[in-house]
User: What shape does this take?
Amino acid sequence: MVPLLALRLEDGPHDRYPFAIPALRGLTRLELDCPVTFLVGENGSGKSTLLSGLACAAGAITAGRLSAADDPDLPGGRLLSERLRLEWRHRTSRGFFLRAEDFFGYVLGLKRLREDLEADLERSLRESTDLPDGERQRRAAPYRGQLGALRNYGAPLEARSHGEGYLAFFAARFVPGGLHLLDEPEAALSPMRQLALLSLLRACAEQGGQFVIATHSPLLLAYPQARIYEFSESGVNTAVYEELEAVRLTRHFLEDPGRFLRHL
Assistant: This one.
């Protein structure tokens, strides 16, 4: 069973960002008691702002160096979170919040951490050459343990293509029973990799994992039995996959690209 059941947005002034965003002005409650929930809409419609507000309200771990509540790039999310109230089946600290733009910094941070740990391990072994072997290994164990944890990703993420590293990150970090908040996870993924991500979503969801995902991807939106909320000038409303603009536009384009391209 998923950990998060719903969110409520308490009433208040709507004359400033982010509360003045049309889709959010009339929002009072969103049901989230589904393994996979998608937030869709045009750029600037408020879906990413709501997702970051949810991350702040839930105290979600982020892939970056800072928590969602402390990230200076999320002022709208922090403001929104002050009026968000979450309804839990069971509160969890498992899972994470990831924006596509955070991943590059995350990979560089892992690279620096790995290099620092390797240097610390080498120094520890060098400085303890006169000690019994058991003591040398005891002192080195913390560094080896942390390096071992980094190997959960397989080859270093910085040694992979952006898309391969992205997918490896998801494979290593999706956890049963966790709350995973993903903002446009398709950004680095080819269509084939997006299908692989769907498989990872399903495997984790079957073990109680929960996902709230802001996306433009018709491939991801096709996840079976997902709940879809569409953000627009008229508010936030449930939507049917086949009727989504992203799906209809993509289908029409693939049927006749020339009909669109001749107007460029």
Q: What stands out?
A: The mean pLDDT is 86. The beta strands are 4-9, 29-31, 36-41, 84-88, 95-99, 179-183, 210-214, 227-232, 235-238. The longest helix spans residues 103-127. The first strand starts at residue 4 and ends at 9.
